[in-house]
């Protein structure tokens, strides 16, 4: 971000100016300087710990400041953290200003709403239930300000269209910030209790533990995604004709799973299964995968080993769960004529029946060396024709319903062969997509 667009610099300068204006009434507000200093130091310490160890932003102390301090004083709580914490990316000064001004405006807005609704008078053990409504409104105001600022800087710095810049920002932030807000309110109530600030600090301990667990989950998930990406990239490099095929099969598998009403965990497993269904091609000689002419029976038998190769490769990846069975059995057919084991009917795992339909659909709607892409309607008609023999009718019906409702918008399309030569017309190549 060396060359920051002028309008992004203008956006940061405008937000910084607004933050300064919010702080100007500080002297007239007569804040408790000891409370302000303690909250600012505590927020800086929490931010240092969270950014260094876990990643992300820790809002409970900031929101406690909105509940305890006048708006002008609350706006100063995040400033020391922004000035003291290291900034890795350039331009450093611009980023420091943004990190100070953005939360200052958000917490000022939250404090203003909290004061307007009488929340400061309700913060205390006897009046605690009455503090919930003002605190909730303050948290909503906090999220709204962050949404406006984040969408604005995204549109200004990254040239994202305005309609996309703000899409989903508020809905994604509401739940986590609401949890932080509840912790901040608990801190404020204990702070005003006879036990004082020391008791308020105890709220941070369970919050810190839960944040650590949450961060570990996301790190583990990121590691899973990296593992899958590496395997898919290896397949795509080896078999250029199917580049993008894995992601599209994963997408089609998700459409089917959601249409069948599967829960989110199973949908995610089906996505993994679709993405990795052809990982066994890494064990197939490249010359066979890229061969333009007809395959000999021996060559076809070698290619038909790829489900078993794939299953062996992912056997030890525990997070894949039943996706491993889909990788092994996605070429089985309902009438028992598939491979590698000739399973029939319900003996074929459900996840494999989902991926089989998704795989066949994308194979028919993608241009390859031996066939040109069919229209979506023609591909669905072919799936329906083969339902009950090759494919599970439930999966075919689910995909057809999902496509009628939302259409088919694959992210990657292989329209040309690796050499830029248009693919052959259907019937001119003799390889069958079934083995692929």
Give a verbal description of the structure.
With 436 residues, the protein is an all-alpha fold. It folds into 2 domains: 6-202, no CATH class; 218-435, Hypothetical protein af1432. It has 22 helices and no strands. The radius of gyration is 29 Å and the shape is elongated. The two termini are 43 Å apart. Residues 412-436 have low confidence and may be disordered.
The SSE order reads HHHHHHHHHHHHHHHHHHHHHH
Q: Which outline best applies?
A: elongated
The CATH class of the largest domain: Mainly Alpha
Quote the average pLDDT.
83
Q: Mind describing the biggest β-sheet?
A: none
Overall number of strands: 0
Q: Give me the number of helical elements.
A: 22
Q: Give the name of the CATH architecture of the largest domain.
A: Orthogonal Bundle
Give the name of the CATH superfamily of the largest domain.
Hypothetical protein af1432
Helix content: 55-70%
* Straight-line N-to-C gap: 43 Å
User: What structural category arises from helix and sheet content?
Assistant: mainly alpha
Low-pLDDT runs: 412-436
Strand content: under 5%
GO molecular function, one term: hydrolase activity
Biased composition (Polar residues): 425-436
Domain HD: 242-364
Domain HD-GYP: 220-415
């Amino acid at each position: 971000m060396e060359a920051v667009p002028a309008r992004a610099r203008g956006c940061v300068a405008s937000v910084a100016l607004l933050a300064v204006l919010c702080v100007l009434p500080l002297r007239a507000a007569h804040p408790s300087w000891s409370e302000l200093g303690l909250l600012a130091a505590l927020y800086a310490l929490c931010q240092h710990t969270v950014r260094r160890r876990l990643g992300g932003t820790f809002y409970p102390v900031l929101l406690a400041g909105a509940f305890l301090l006048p708006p002008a004083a609350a706006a100063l709580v995040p400033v020391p953290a922004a000035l003291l914490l290291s900034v890795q990316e350039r331009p450093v000064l611009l980023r420091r200003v943004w990190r100070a001004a953005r939360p200052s405006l958000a917490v000022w807005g939250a404090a203003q709403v909290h004061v307007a609704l009488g929340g400061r008078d309700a913060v205390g053990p006897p009046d605690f239930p009455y503090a919930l409504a003002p605190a909730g409104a303050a948290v909503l105001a906090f999220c709204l300000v962050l949404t406006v600022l984040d969408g604005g800087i995204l549109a200004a710095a990254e040239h994202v269209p305005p309609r996309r810049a703000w899409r989903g920002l508020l809905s994604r932030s509401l739940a986590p910030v609401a949890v932080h807000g509840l912790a901040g309110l608990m801190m404020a109530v204990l702070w005003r209790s006879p036990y004082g600030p020391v008791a308020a600090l105890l709220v941070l301990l369970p919050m810190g533990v839960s944040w650590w667990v949450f961060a570990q989950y996301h790190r583990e998930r990121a590691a899973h995604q990296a593992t899958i990406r590496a395997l898919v990239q290896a397949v795509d490099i080896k078999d250029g004709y199917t580049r993008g095929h894995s992601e599209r099969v994963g997408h089609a598998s998700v459409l089917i799973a959601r249409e069948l009403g599967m829960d989110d965990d199973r949908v995610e497993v089906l996505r993994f299964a679709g993405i990795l269904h052809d990982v066994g091609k890494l064990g197939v000689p490249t010359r066979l995968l890229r061969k333009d002419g007809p395959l000999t029976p021996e060559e076809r038998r070698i290619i038909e080993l790829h489900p078993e190769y794939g299953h062996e490769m992912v056997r030890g990846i525990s997070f894949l769960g039943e996706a491993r069975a889909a990788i092994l059995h996605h070429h089985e057919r309902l009438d028992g004529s598939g491979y590698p084991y000739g399973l029939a009917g319900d003996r074929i795992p459900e996840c494999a029946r989902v991926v089989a339909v998704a795989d066949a659909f994308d194979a028919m709607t993608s241009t390859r060396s031996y066939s040109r892409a069919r229209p979506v309607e023609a591909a669905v008609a072919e799936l329906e024709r083969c339902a009950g023999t090759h494919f599970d009718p439930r999966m075919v019906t689910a995909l057809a319903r999902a496509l009628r409702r939302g259409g088919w918008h694959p992210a990657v399309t292989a329209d040309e062969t690796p050499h830029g030569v248009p693919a052959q017309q259907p019937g001119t190549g003799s390889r069958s997509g079934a083995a692929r």
